[in-house]
Each structure stands twice: as C-alpha cells, then as structure tokens.
Amino acid sequence: MFGVCLPEIEEKESFRSKSRIEGLSDLVFGLALSIGSIALIQHIPQAPTALINDVLNFGFSFLIIAVIWLSYTRIVSSLSDETSSTLLLKFVLLFCVALEPFLYYVYQTTVFAFLDFSSAAYAIDVGAMMVLLSGMTYIVIRQ
Predict the structure, then answer these.
(1) C-alpha angle 45/112/46, rounded to 5°?
(2) Distance between CA atoms of 127 and 117, rounded to whole angstroms?
(3) For the chain, what is the domain count?
(4) Which domain holds residue 43?
(5) Cα–Cα distance measured from residue 26 to residue 49, given in angstroms and rounded to the nearest whole number
(6) Residue pair 41/102 in contact by the 8 Å Cβ criterion
(7) What's the confidence (pLDDT) of residue 135?
(8) What spatial distance separates the first Cα and last Cα of the chain, rounded to whole Å?
C-alpha cells in the first residue's frame, strides 16, 4: 500500500519543486529586463540622437535577455527530470542573467581606462550564459 503511494508523492514533490524553480526563473528574467529599463529612466536624453542611442542600447540588452529566456524555456520544457546538475546550471544561468544589466550599464558608462576590463566582464557574462544553455541542451540530448 505504501509502495503505491510513494511514487505518486515523489512525482508531486518533483512537480512542485520544478514549478517553484521556473517561477524563480521567470522572476529573475523579468527583473533583468526591468533593471535595464530603469537604467533608461535614470538618464534622460537631451537630444534626439541621444534618445535613439539609448533606445538602441536598451534594445541590444533586451534582445540578449529575451533570446536567452526563449532558449531557456524551450530547453527546460524538454527536460524530463530535475537533477542536481541541471539545477546547478539553472542557478548559475540565473545569476548571469541577473548580472547582465549591471555589467552592460557599467560597460556603457565606464571611463576609457576601465573600458577593456568592463567589456571583458560583460563578454564573459554573455558567453557564460551561452555555455550554460549549451550544457542544458547537452543534458536534454543525452536524455
């Protein structure tokens, strides 16, 4: 009798855990997009060219986050079970996503002497997101 109930309980627990992680993921992606738009509000342009430049810069950051989110949701929907490795990849990816608007803002507003380091930090963050997505894709293919 108890043996019949245990798989059912484990399945519900796995579903609940998975949905909570996905809720956190949606929150982090939403906050990353919001932080990018707050950076726009913080700097009011004084000329049409400055407005166009700010919108294009925001669009670039938005595009990166949106593409990562779309890829992430497709990969996660294909995962059959939650393992410790997929959980680790998800959390590191969420950290990189949360860091992206900050690093992009630092890169845009940095002084020339710090430009090399800030652009390298931003490139490492975006590259890490791509590597983490490919790691999750590898897990999906292996399953």
Answers:
(1) 10
(2) 15
(3) 1
(4) 2-142
(5) 33
(6) no
(7) 94
(8) 31
pLDDT over 70 at 123, yes or no: yes
pLDDT tens digits for range 22-74: 888 888 898 888 887 887 787 788 899 988 988 898 899 899 999 999 999 99
Q: What share of the chain is helix, strand, coil (3-state, %, to 5)?
A: 90, 0, 10
Cα(54)–Cα(38) distance, integer angstroms:
12
Identify which of 32, 19, 8, 42 has the alpha carbon closest to the alpha carbon of residue 94. 32
DSSP string across 79-96: --S--HHHHHHHHHHHHH
How large is the average pLDDT for residues 83-108? 89
- 110 against 59, higher pLDDT: 59
State the Cα–Cα distance between residues 124 and 68, nearest whole angstrom: 15
Contact 27, 90 (CB under 8 A): no
Closest CA to 85 of 128, 135, 126, 134: 135
